[in-house]
What we know:
Number of strands: 10
Helix content: 25-40%
Oligomer: single chain
Order of helices and strands: EEHHHEEEEEHHEEHHHE
Shape: globular
Amino acid sequence: MRKDNQDYFQIEQLHGNKxxxxxxxxxxxxxxAGNVASRLAAETFIQTLSDQPSALLDDELVGDALxxxxxAANRVVYEGAKAHRDYKGMGTTxxxxxxxxxxxxIINVGDSRAYHISGDIIVQVTRDxxxxxxxxxxxxxTREEALTHPNRNLITRALGTDEKVGRDLFTVExxxxxxxxxxxxxxxxxxxxxxILQEISRYDDPDKCCEMLxxxxxxxxGSDNITALIVDI
Length: 233
């Protein structure tokens, strides 16, 4: 429902479509600055990965490649914020993946998420870097209370806000028929994991799944930009 879309996503296929690079970013820092941050981060992330294709096929090197790509994205956004007065304070989340037939390597900064869907099971792979997630981990609030907490949109890590930023890395084993979902919090703040699983299970076409997830989020009020990206295995 927002006038400006601060989300940005990108997909790249390499090695005869056997290697899929994907990323979702959710920008912040004012309308124009958020747009710039998410686009710069996503494009830099994918380009940096694309420049080292051999590393992406090596399980020992792909984690470093993802980290390098994240650091490059952080640097571009950070330097852009310093160079342009209108972009001061801009930043963005990032969740990205390098996916092969049997495995997906995932990196995240912020509260954009990756989910692994296998049959009738959905698993949140990433952990939000957010204030409410830290409160849940400490036992200060329950998972249910986190969904409506007034500070649920406050993140503790973002690309571009500092010269260096921490990241989490994950590896997911895949089998034929599995799906990987990358999404911004515009979806997960309004649609539960169980509802996501139900919508994804209804359709074979990943484009239709994404369309229906976004429609469901909009029907709930659509108070934020919603981005959903599905990789079929």
